[in-house]
Amino acid sequence: MRFMLIQNYGGVELEPTPMNEWTPEEIQAHIAFQMALNSELGESGEFVDAQALSGPDQAKFVLSDGAGAPVVTDGPFPEGKELLAGYRLVDVESVERAIEIAARISAAPGRGGAPVGQRIEVREVMSAPDPEL
Amino acid sequence: MTTPSATEGLLRELAPQALGAVLRRFGNFADAEDAVQEALIVAIEKWPVGGVPDNPLGWLITVASRRMMEQFRRDDARRRREDLVVAGARTPQGPTPGTDDTLILMFMCCHPTLSPSAAIPLTLRAIGGLTTREIAAAFLVPEATMAQRISRAKTKIREADEPFALPPESDRSVRIRSVLHILYLMFSEGYTTSAGYELTRSDLSSEAIRLAQAVHRSLPQEPEVTGLLALMLLTDARRPGRTEDDGSLVPLLLQDRTRWDRALIGEGVALITRALEQHRIGEYQLQAAIAAVHDQALLPKDTDWSAIESLYARLEHKTGNPMVTLNRSVAVSMVDGPEAGLRMLDGVADRLGDHHRYHAVRAHLLAEAGETDRAICEFELASQSATNLRERHYLTTEAARLAT
Description:
heterodimer, A: alpha+beta, Alpha-Beta Plaits, four-stranded antiparallel β-sheet, 6 strands, 30% strand, B: mainly alpha, Serine Threonine Protein Phosphatase 5, Tetratricopeptide repeat, 21 helices
């Protein structure tokens, strides 16, 4: 089963201090945690993909009616915290395992090494059908 | 000069034989499997250019054995030598008459302690002769992830510490069941295709059929082995009718049956007939028998639904699986009308109430019974909980069709 474990810019429950107010060591510890988790998932044979997206200020919204020139809106956006920050794609045995990994991501170290408590959205990736038997 | 595909075909036939020979000589499944894989990769590069050696199997065994020796010399020589002595004492030297390496390897790779997501790739590599890269592509995961999955699977096999021999008679039926389960899942995996990966994925089904044929050759008197092979052939025979040119799914009863593969159907029917004559009925035989009834009907209206209904009843009795009851209720509705099917569905509501297939079947039967509003509602519930894309498209479309 494939799951996408999604995190947004907002949704940080325990440690809402923005990362630009952390010390360099705290930021490094946070990044090291993410890298270590990815290689751990590689070793367990569950890693498929992980991507972080550029910040919400870089986002563009595109709207088109299919005929005229598209309307392109640049940031910053008031709802920036709801935008996607990044995801991990994992291939696991069960939804329980996906939740376990999501919990690890959620408790990534923040200020003073305390867990940030990021809200992680766990979504199963659609598969294709079984043979009809 | 040989074409690459002919070389690959030959190598994949020889892979399990080479592995069996190397294992007999050295023991140590994990290293032997690596060594054979390396030999296969060298052969894929060399043979199409320089020609196939006179004794291709001997060539592979020699190259793989040399890798094994290099490995022993390279790291931790003393410990390795001790391992070698131990392994040599435990495994018989040279080929042992009357045994079948491919079958022994199937039992090893489908060891009950392995999860299917580990056993399937290991089987494809060690016995199917596929490379890690090919297997990773088939499962749409990075090569490094797949390599780790295979390596962890091999660690578990080492921990199980079984001699390179057929499992004892007392374990045989349990072990056969786990081999069949893995091959069945490998076959199904080839059907869970998403657009664009069609070719790669259906290779998994072909590979499962090839391996099932090998197991059947080794165990011709096991009716469930025969049944599984028949089930695969009878299902695969319908593949050409299963999708539109755009990749969308065609339900069984709407398929163009002239596109079905009659030769495969003939082969499958002959196999299942022979298996059933042994009177040791199991679930694969029952599933194959159901597939055979569908396949033999030239038009949907010719389908012998009461035969299908009674086969599902036996399967339900044997497995207690509520999904079987779901399928049986469709057959019941074809024989006794949709109301009878709906009554049967009520019996599994508490066990399957949230499953999208439950809602989908219920929707169909309600639509048949003329209860359009309730059918639309069920189709919508089904599409909300569907976990595969084509099914969701189909269910959403059906709901919309009824609403207009």
